[in-house]
Specification:
It contains 26 helices and 24 strands. The chain is of the alpha/beta class. The chain has 6 domains: 216 residues, P-loop containing nucleotide triphosphate hydrolases (Rossmann fold, 3-Layer(aba) Sandwich), CATH 3.40.50.300; 123 residues, HUPs (Rossmann fold), CATH 3.40.50; 105 residues, no CATH class; 103 residues, no CATH class; 55 residues, no CATH class; 172 residues, Histidine kinase-like ATPase, C-terminal domain (Heat Shock Protein 90, 2-Layer Sandwich), CATH 3.30.565. Strand 21 and strand 22 form a beta hairpin. The chain is flat and about 145 Å long. Its EC number is 2.7.13.3.
Length: 871
């Protein structure tokens, strides 16, 4: 029986319309004559969804009893007996009631697919197994019902049902998703704008991966190896040489001109893990440059560089490949076309850019035979074997001259060459080969005791011996060299991996880098020196203490100049790493270069962070000073002028005021001075906040009590405020006086801007270890672009009357909230207006022992009932 087809409607969040879309598709297919039935649909009492059910056949559900309660589930047997062409099954992630045919509904769906039916189903992005933990971290709500990703990915078609967060919240506010009593809690918890935006992005990314997977599978099934330019991707190949910076910048320009193409940098390392001509310092700097330009860095393994580059480019579906012109000279290019030419020949549809640079054609430098991989004692022993062994071997062979032929003598000399190569390396073996050739010619090749050879066969044999002996010598020496390099490469890899771990764990990367280098290579001190900007050019710069300053140091007394260390590694013209304790071994220089490059990057990052912090502080201070001068010159003058005018009038002898006029003037002076006191108190508190010296007395307290006192402080105007604070809400950690001040300020603002007949509302809920108190108004609101500005001191955003203060209220309220370990942020009120949310940490995990003032709770209850009756 052929396998049925699965179509999944993937929702970015609950309420976006997955079930509606599924039912709509069911109607379309039914109108075309397809036999469509509803196996299971959950309408959630939504009128529009219930209307879509009308007109489609609904199969009866299976009734189950569990723990005394009755439940209904999908009846798989009824569907199989009915055998429609298409069956609609809602909520794929649903967990069936114990006693059902299968534990999960997606297992029911797989059974229907095995029977050859076409199944239309729905699932939300938060129910996918692979991202379930990410969703919980974002929303704070655990999702216990999940579906394996592989089950959903097997679908023939996946359709994303999406909606902007603002539109979904409007649907929620209009009651199209949940009942009215659940709307406020949902909007304040799961259905926040940030949560919905993150869920939407997760859905889009997951579906994009599905599309890429389908494209890769199609190309694989049809054996399509060429790159398809579905999206521009530029790959730049790095060798680890200094020309890499030029190539990266050129590739970035190519990517920018290609309408924002992806930039990928790749370095091909040898499969044996041994070092080529690359520099760790250059690669580290180039990786940082690639990432700063918005690209990504990759390292692949392969001995055939052109093949490895093309394989990588095709794997990422690259459209363009940027290579550097060959550094080899013309003579070397005669014998081998080089990486650039070979890659271009096999690139196919991939465009290859060969970029010239200052190193092109200058050569890589000829390899040297010096510097054996073996130690000096072993080489001396090898020379000793040549000096002593060859004469002894020659003497013994002359005694048996009649019993051995020339080929036998050659084999014995060749064996001794191998022994010399194994023990002493290249040079002893070469000496043994040349000396053996001469000794064979003089003592054993006719005519004997002459340097001439009278038979061409002997000439051939001797020269073959010499060639084989030299080849064996070189091979044995290279083998020893590779063994040593492999061991060193492994040690480097271990050291660098440890380095990366220490840097990631440390809050300050530079000291961690220097400390790790000191421990790894056994130095007593490591110092990173930076050249002073005003240092003059000096012929003896390495010794001039006035030209250097210490950027970072670990270990014993830091070096003040590069000359004071046992070794120094210049990173660039201005930064040098100085080591003290012992000379630096040549084999360790590559590792130290990698450390030095990372240390320079860490230093620059620290400097940039310090500069950004200093610039931000200075900018804020300058803004505050300018705004303060403006406030003092305008807003503070108003209450002073009113008080001054009232007092001057009272002291005047030219006008006689009756008792009523005197009381009015005194009241004006009193109110003006009160306003002046409040303004000065706010200014003082703001200055204490910015100086970090505001004292707080944080303690466990009840939200209901704080709200009640803040409302009482507003006087008669506060009686119109609606309050919805759950009695079981957890206590919070806060300063009672500061929290009361924050709430009073927010409530007074909300009262000022709320329209007639729609008073502000105070709600509270617990979420992710925090309690959020929301002050909701339905006034004109605040444009999204201006929401950050309202929390700056002396900002009033269009409010230009002289009786509203200097614009410190919200800035001070946010500062007070942050001083208590919380936050204050605005959100859009569904239907218009602004919601100010105060978030404070929970004090007690269990809210069972809430100790709020009974009188305060009674007032809250009274206001709550009054608000509900008004609503």
């Amino acid at each position: 029986m052929p396998q049925g087809q699965l179509r999944v409607y993937l929702g970015a969040a609950p309420g976006v319309g997955k079930t509606f879309k599924m039912l709509e598709e069911g109607h379309h297919r039914a109108d075309r004559g397809t036999d469509v039935v509803i196996g299971y649909v959950e309408t959630h009492d939504r009128p529009r969804t219930e209307a879509m059910v009308t007109g489609l056949e609904v199969l009866p559900r299976r009734n189950l009893t569990y723990r005394g309660a009755s439940f209904t589930e999908l009846d798989v047997d009824a569907v199989l007996e009915r055998r429609p062409d298409v069956v609609l099954v809602d909520e794929m992630a649903h967990t069936n009631v114990p006693g059902s045919r299968n534990a999960k509904r997606w297992q029911d769906i797989e059974e229907l697919l095995d029977a050859g039916l076409v199944v239309l189903t729905t699932v939300n992005i938060q129910h996918l197994e692979s991202i379930n933990d990410v969703v919980q971290e974002i929303t704070g709500v655990p999702q216990r019902e999940t579906v394996p990703d592989a089950v959903v990915r097997r679908a023939e078609q996946i359709e994303l049902v999406d909606m902007t967060p603002e539109a979904l919240r409007r649907r929620m506010a209009h009651g199209n998703i949940y009942k009215p009593e659940r709307v406020d809690a949902a909007l304040g918890n799961y259905f926040r704008v940030g949560n919905l935006t993150a869920l939407r992005e997760l859905a889009l990314l997951w579906l994009a991966d599905k599309v890429d997977e389908q494209l890769d599978r199609y190309r694989e099934e049809h054996r399509i190896s060429e790159s398809w330019e579905t999206r521009e991707r530029v790959v730049v190949a790095l060798t680890g040489g200094p020309e890499g910076d030029t190539l990266i910048r050129r590739a970035a320009r190519v990517a920018d001109r290609s309408k924002g193409a992806d930039l990928e940098a790749v370095h091909v390392a040898r499969s044996d893990g041994l070092a080529g001509g690359e520099s760790p310092a250059h690669l580290a700097r180039q990786r940082t440059l690639v990432e700063n330009l918005g690209g990504s860095y990759h390292q692949v393994v392969g001995n055939d560089v052109p093949k490895a580059l093309l394989d990588f480019a095709r794997a990422v579906n690259a459209s363009q490949l940027v290579l550097g012109a060959s550094r080899r000279n013309r003579l070397a290019q005669v014998f081998s076309p080089g990486v650039g030419v070979t890659t271009t020949a096999g690139a196919g549809p991939i465009d290859v850019h060969l970029v010239t640079h200052e190193r092109a054609g200058r050569g890589r430098g000829a390899p040297t035979l010096g510097g054996s991989a073996l130690s000096l004692p072993r080489r001396l022993v090898g020379f000793g074997l040549v000096a002593v062994g060859l004469p002894v071997l020659t003497y013994l062979l002359t005694l048996t001259r009649e019993g051995l032929s020339l080929p036998s003598d050659i084999l014995l000399y060749l064996a001794w060459v191998v022994v010399a190569a194994l023990v002493g390396g290249l040079y002893p073996a070469l000496c043994s080969a040349v000396a053996g050739f001469l000794l064979l010619n003089y003592y054993f090749a006719p005519p004997i005791h002459l340097w001439t050879i009278n038979q061409w066969q002997n000439i051939l044999a001797l020269f073959v011996f010499l060639a084989v002996a030299v080849a064996v010598s070189v091979t044995v020496d290279q083998s020893a060299r590779r063994t040593r390099e492999a061991a060193a490469a492994r040690a480097e890899a271990v050291t660098l991996s440890t380095l990366a771990g220490s840097v990631l764990r440390g809050s300050r990367p530079l000291p961690a880098l220097l400390g790790q280098l000191r421990e790894a290579l056994g130095f007593t001190g490591v110092t990173l020196l930076e050249r002073r900007p005003d240092a003059p050019s000096s012929p003896d710069l390495r010794r001039d203490k006035d030209s250097w300053r210490i950027a970072g140091a670990v270990g014993d007394a830091p070096c003040l100049t590069p000359f004071e260390g046992d070794a120094d590694i210049p990173v660039d013209e201005d930064i040098t790493l100085v080591l003290r304790g012992h000379p630096l071994a040549a084999a360790d220089r590559r590792v130290v270069q990698a450390f030095a490059a990372q240390a320079a990057v860490a230093l620059r990052q620290e400097r940039l962070s310090e500069q950004a912090a200093a610039a931000g502080t200075l900018a804020e201070a300058d803004k505050l000073r300018t705004a303060l001068l403006s406030a003092v010159s305008h807003d503070l003058r108003t209450p002073l002028a009113s008080a001054k005018a009232a007092v001057t009038s009272l002291r005047s002898h030219e006008v006689v005021f009756d008792e009523h006029d005197q009381d009015e003037l005194l009241a004006t002076a009193d109110e003006s001075l009160d306003r002046l006191v409040r303004l000065v108190d706010n200014l003082l508190d703001m200055s204490r906040l910015q100086a970090g010296v505001l004292g707080t007395s944080v303690q466990a307290m009840s939200v209901a009590e704080a709200v009640a006192k803040a409302v009482e402080d507003l006087g008669p105007a506060g009686h119109d405020i609606g309050i919805h604070v759950p009695d079981e809400l957890a206590e919070i950690n806060a300063d009672p006086a500061l929290l009361e001040r924050i709430l009073a300020n927010l409530l007074s603002n909300a009262l000022r801007y709320s329209p007639q007949g729609r008073p502000p509302l105070v709600t509270a809920s617990e979420h992710g270890g925090y309690v959020e108190i929301r002050v909701v108004d339905h006034g004109p609101g605040i444009p999204v672009a201006d929401r950050d500005r309202v929390f700056l001191p002396f900002q009033r955003l269009g409010d230009r009357t002289n009786d509203t203060g200097v614009g410190l209220g919200l800035a001070l309220s946010r500062g007070l909230a942050e001083a208590m370990g919380g936050d204050l942020f605005p959100e859009t009120t569904p239907g218009g207006g602004i919601t100010m949310t105060v978030r404070l940490p929970v004090a007690v995990p269990s809210p069972a022992d809430n100790t709020a003032d009974p009188a305060a709770l009674a007032r809250i209850e009274h206001w709550r009932h009054g608000t509900e009756e008004t609503a």
